[in-house]
Amino acid sequence: MRAAVRTTCAYCGVGCGIAATPNPNGAGERSVEIRGDEAHPANAGRLCSKGTHLGETVALTGRLLTPMIGDRRASWDKALDLVARRFAETIARHGPDSVAFYVSGQLLTEDYYVANKLMKGFIGSANIDTNSRLCMSSAVAGHMRAFGEDVVPARYDDLEAADLVVLVGSNTAWCHPIVYQRIQAARAARGSKLVVIDPRRTETCEGADLHLALRPGSDVALMKGLLAWLAAEDALDRDYLAAHVEVPGGFWEELEATSDLWTTAKTCDLDPQALLRFFELFRDNPRTVTVFSQGINQSIRGTDQVNAILNLHLATGRIGKPGAAPFSITGQPNAMGGREVGGLASTLASHMDFAPENVARVGRFWAAPNMATRPGLKAVDLFRAMGEGRIKAVWIMATNPAVSLPDAARVREALAKCPFVVVSDVMAETDTGAHAHVRLPAAAWGEKDGTVTNSERVVSRQRRFMALPGEAMPDWWIIKEVGRRMGWKGEFAYDHPADIWREHARLTAYQNDGPASGGRVLNLADKAAIGNQAYEDMAPFRWGGTPFADGRFSTPSGKARMLPVVQMELQDPLRDWPLTLNTGRYRDQWHTMTRTGLAPKLARHREEPLVEVNPGDAEVMGLRSGDLARVATPQGDSLFRVALSDGQRPGEIFTPIHWTDQTSTGGRTGLLPRPLVDPHSGQPGFKSTPARLAKVATEWKGFLILRGEHPVKVPCLWATKVAVPGGALYEIAGNGDPARIEACLPRGERVEAIDQARGSRRVAVIVEGRLAGVLFLTRTGLLPSRDWLIGQLAAEGVGAAVLAARGPGSQPDKGATICVCFDIGLNQIVAAIREQALVDVPAIGKALGAGTNCGSCRPALAKILVQTNEEVLDAAE
């Protein structure tokens, strides 16, 4: 077996270390064994379900392997020359602000740096923005307003040193599972308290000491109410405020007049006693960490929501100390690296803004001829400008805005109108790539070499352990080649990612003496002269030490700033749009599923895009679990499968963000949110869109299973693709004659069975004794479990008996997959709890193995345990 390569996970901002062993035991050049890196400070060997199953995603299925101009293959020289020429011509004719880059937190820091330098220093525009705008730019704006610099003043160790952890707008158990496990381990070891503030009762709430299911968008009112109560209780740190914080005039008077406990409870739609309990917990536990994520950031008042949290920590002196900090936890693996180099349109470089002295400083360092002097267009405005004809050439790197941006139909229209669209991606077919004039094949995880920064400011290496496939190239190489072809050969003469890293590190240190001398916390001077081998061997390190421990901030006065924040007006339900739509992630999927969608195990937890509905609302609307329903907003509509959830507040619904045109005829959440943004950060508000929901009747339902890697477009109302071992499963439903679905089956020996009474039809295609495809349809009957049939894709000697959808003997349905690591279903877990009288999650692990690997399913196991034992007690009574 080859030696393991230490690298970093490709998914969330936790930044877990991975030991990747390529080609284990000669298993094949595109195979890898994945385990957690026990030496990495972020995860100490633990991995969540997504990281555990990264090995399932490294095959070349669907990869873009050659440059494409239109639908034709092209050489790199031809493609790069075309990109450089069209951008140069557009700039010459319409000016530098007529072009734009839209980049991604999936890029490595070195990729980001070259793209930012090319756009802001040489093209001369700041029209480079990133999909991180959609997830954490309100945190950036809040940090800069309060601290003078975008610095996260926390680390994961603080979670383990805290006496109270407050999770605000963060489904940590699903979106940052390793962080959640660290919190729960600390609670078990030292009895720390956990409060979850979220309109939804998610799995993160399981076992919390308190869950506040506040009204969506009322976070500012909650935090202002807490601060007013603390002031009345004389629980502020007056000495810290006097020495280290600027407070605007009238701040306390306005707070006292508007934010008493009873008014706060009414605004937030919370029980006053529950609210008081939270206030008391906060007062009584000075070692408090407040973790916030998308539920805070993704709001049209996201920056004020961030600053409301920062105000609390500044007013109580809970910052710069072990176990006491506000902690913005990022969504993407390198959102922080992008922030460091200036990948947002609203920042310049190295945590500098567009102040004239900063523009001059960066211009000198880069020897740049065309420095941008003002912020560029943020993501939503960038694509709006494209639709209006002001952006005439765009280069999109490692992201899928036709799916992920709000009001995605308008985004597609803008891309269709744009005269020149370039897409760098790993996948050949994406919703965004469909609009590209040029597609450039980029290196994927496992093929890339560079650095990433996680949520706690730890810089780690992503190392290459597989050869570049086809003609794929690293993003930094593609960008620098375009820069050279545009005339800046010496300025983009990079031969190795270490060359870029050293330049980035030097820029952070250039004329920067730190906050004590009016400079910045971000300073990588000690890494600015390392050699290539030292770069290759670089161990994870955290920059910035313990920021603000000395009470010095990156502001002109050296003091932090408390900001007056405004609670946005909360509207009553609208007559035509009576529901409130919230959107977010699923546990085992990532963004638009270009990677996780390839992993069969990850597909089984949530196979289809669901709209989660409160049971009371569903009853009023005549909806049952498993129905199809259309979610509509003023921007658009899409179909979803209905799931009833007690965790949804009445009047509110939830949909996931992951499904695309490549994977489903429905589930297009990006079509639904309003393109309204926070006035400070430009971050869209994805969490509270007025919506309505209506049942969609279908005459038949079924499923299609196909062997192999050749996707089909199933011609029916509802068709969702699910990756399975050896092929794909399509869940389908529709109206009219379903016979046209049979055209999706491959050629071969056909066997079929028809039940006229139930309107059922079963068809299997067998080729040389192996199952090539199977189609089950019914108008009134039940459909069998898919698991046994999926297993037959790998079987030999398959015959007509396959239509029975089960083998000989009793094979009970395992139910919906809960533990993806060991493929354990709900029915198996419930049966074990009942039959073996299991009383806790470790007992379930001992009996079945569930929850003993990555641990991502432990909150679900805890919930199932409670529900099952309650049912047993009810039956006994």
Molecular structure report:
This protein has 877 residues and is an alpha/beta fold. It is 30% helix and 19% strand. Helix 2 crosses helix 20, helix 3 packs parallel to helix 15 (335-341) and helix 3 (109-123) packs across helix 21. The protein is globular, with a radius of gyration of 27 Å. The N and C termini lie far apart (58 Å).
How would you summarize this macromolecular structure in one to three sentences?
With 877 residues, the protein is α/β, with parallel strands linked by helices.
Stretches with pLDDT under 50, minimum 5 residues: none
C-alpha end-to-end distance: 58 Å
Query: How large, in whole angstroms, is the Cα Rg?
Result: 27 Å
What can be said about the biggest beta sheet?
A: 7 strands, mixed
Walk across the major sheet and give the strand order: 5-4-16-15-14-6-7
User: What share of the residues lie within helices?
Assistant: 25-40%
Global structural class: alpha/beta
Count up the helices: 28
Question: What would the keywords be for this entry?
Answer:
single chain; 877 residues; alpha/beta; seven-stranded mixed sheet
Helices and strands in order:
Elements: E1 5-8, E2 17-22, E3 32-36, H1 49-52, E4 68-69, E5 72-73, H2 76-94, E6 99-103, H3 109-123, E7 128-130, H4 137-147, H5 156-161, E8 164-168, H6 172-175, H7 177-190, E9 193-197, E10 210-212, H8 219-232, H9 238-244, E11 245-246, H10 251-258, H11 261-268, H12 272-284, E12 288-292, H13 294-297, H14 302-315, E13 325-328, H15 335-341, H16 356-366, H17 379-387, E14 393-397, H18 401-404, H19 408-417, E15 420-425, E16 438-441, E17 450-453, E18 458-462, H20 475-485, H21 497-509, H22 532-536, E19 541-542, E20 560-561, E21 579-584, H23 600-603, E22 610-613, H24 615-621, E23 628-633, E24 636-644, E25 652-656, E26 689-696, E27 700-707, E28 718-724, E29 727-734, E30 749-755, E31 760-767, E32 770-778, H25 787-791, E33 817-819, E34 824-825, H26 826-836, H27 841-848, H28 858-876
Parallel strand pairs: 6-7, 6-14, 8-9, 8-12, 9-10, 11-20, 12-13, 14-15, 15-16, 21-25, 22-24
Antiparallel strand pairs: 1-2, 2-3, 4-5, 4-16, 17-18, 18-19, 21-26, 22-25, 23-24, 23-26, 27-29, 27-32, 28-29, 30-31, 31-32, 33-34
Helix pairs in contact: 2-20, 3-15, 3-20, 3-21, 4-14, 8-10, 8-11, 8-14, 17-19, 26-28
